[in-house]
Structure formats: structure tokens, C-alpha cells
Amino acid sequence: MVALTHDSIDYHALTESVRRPGCGAVCLFLGTVRDLTGDEVTAFLEYEAYAPMAEKKLAEIETDVRRRWPVGDVAMVHRLGKLGVGEVSVAVAVSSPHRAEAFEAGRFAIDTLKELVPIWKKDVAPDGSTAWSEPK
């Protein structure tokens, strides 16, 4: 399951959605909005995406995870819109029979998401100044 949303991410429900009887491990990664970007104070972030391409890339990552690791299930959700400090911006949940594979698959999924999925964030400072970031 992959999705983009303007709503808050229910990471408990996301975690439950990947649990399987044959999987003894569930790995959850949450990305949250920090109050600093480098040395600059962050008031809030705004995320934008080209949704058709972003959803396609997320689906490709999901397929790659399933091909490379014995996962029970995998789910990735990224927020769009304005997010305040402390809010969850991205969540990745992976289940697998064993913890090593769950950790490896989860790390691969979030690292690849950050690198390839066309989601941009605008960092807004308390004075209203902005800086855009692209996928890394």
C-alpha cells in the first residue's frame, strides 16, 4: 500500500495494516518535522508533489522491496500540504518473518523514497522566508 495524503498519518493503523501471522517483525519508520533545518529555525514545512509520478515511484519502490526481501507486507504514506513542527510527514511500515529483513527493507524503502520520489518541501522560517528542498 502506497499513498499520498493531506490528512494526518495514522501510523498505528499503518503498522497494523502490515502485520501478518507469519511475520515476527514489524519495522516502522516515522519522519517528523524538526524545529531546525541546519542552523535555521523552522516554523512549518509545506510539501508538494507531482502526484501521478510520485505514486508511480512509490509503487516501484514497494515492488522492489517485495522482490528483494521476504516481506509479509509493506506500506508507505507521505503527507502533502502544510505541516507543523512535530507532525509526521512520512511513514514506512514493513513486516517480515525476521527482524534483520524488516530493518533492511524498511531502511531501503525510506532511503529510496527520499532519493527518487518527486516530493518537494518548502521550509518556512518564523520571519516568513522560505527555502525549497528537492528529493535527495
Q: What would you note in describing this structure?
A:
The protein has 136 residues and is an alpha+beta fold. It contains three helices and ten strands. The protein has helices at residues 11-18, 51-68, 99-116; strands spanning 2-5, 25-32, 36-37, 40-41, 44-49, 73-79, 81-84, 88-96, 119-124, 130-133. The longest helix is centred in the middle third of the chain and has 18 residues, at 51-68. The radius of gyration is 15 Å and the shape is elongated. The chain starts with a strand and ends with a strand. The mean pLDDT is 96.
Any chance you could write out the topology, listing elements then pairs?
Blueprint: E1 2-5, H1 11-18, E2 25-32, E3 36-37, E4 40-41, E5 44-49, H2 51-68, E6 73-79, E7 81-84, E8 88-96, H3 99-116, E9 119-124, E10 130-133
Parallel strand pairs: 1-6
Antiparallel strand pairs: 2-8, 3-4, 5-7, 5-9, 6-8, 9-10
Helix pairs in contact: 2-3
